[in-house]
Design a protein that fits this description.
The chain is α/β, with parallel strands linked by helices. It has two domains: 8-63, no CATH class; 72-177, 3-Layer(aba) Sandwich (Oxidized Rhodanese, domain 1), CATH 3.40.250. 33% of the residues lie in helices and 22% in strands. The chain has seven helices and seven strands, in the order αβββαβαβααβαβα. The protein has helices at 8-17, 72-78, 92-98, 112-118, 121-128, 147-158, 170-177; strands at 24-32, 35-48, 57-60, 85-88, 105-106, 139-142, 165-166. It has a four-stranded parallel beta sheet with strand order 5-4-6-7, covered by helices on one side. A three-stranded antiparallel beta sheet has the order 1-2-3, with no helix packed on it. The chain is globular and about 50 Å long.
Length: 179
Amino acid sequence: MAALIASVKYAAKTLTSWGAGKCTYICIYIFICGVLQPCNTLALQYTQQSKEYSNKKEIVSTMVDPKRVVSYEDMLKVIQQPEKVIIDVRNIDEIKATGKIPSSINIPLGEVQNVLTSMSDDEFKKNFQRSKPTSSDELIFYCQSGRRSSEALDKALKLGYSNSKTYLGSWNDWSSRQQ
């Protein structure tokens, strides 16, 4: 098996030359035992370095640890495990338009930090009909395509939810396989 491993700098330069720009997200898949699996997300985004260099742009990459990525097959099992908390970070209008993964709760990305840190146990139970997760519970985030769920994962890990994961395929993958 041959593999081409490129540096992030080279990959960013190549993707930019192909037209990747502000808020372009690339999901990298690999074959493992004949099955296509998401590996990492390389998020390309332009950031302004300073007023002095306002025309200079830089590509920033963020990678998701493969151990924190949940597959579609994993999700089929997780929806049957009520102790695991599946969190849809899309806004409510997106969910109304498309549907949601069974047993998931909706906490929009912009509210994740506040809900996990400030919402009382009673208020959480009232809003989501389940106990508020502890820092040791497994949280699995998803969205439409995997970008926002990766952001939510990062927030949860920074808040101490060390068993958090992301379903990078998210709703796009789930809905395409449920047909």
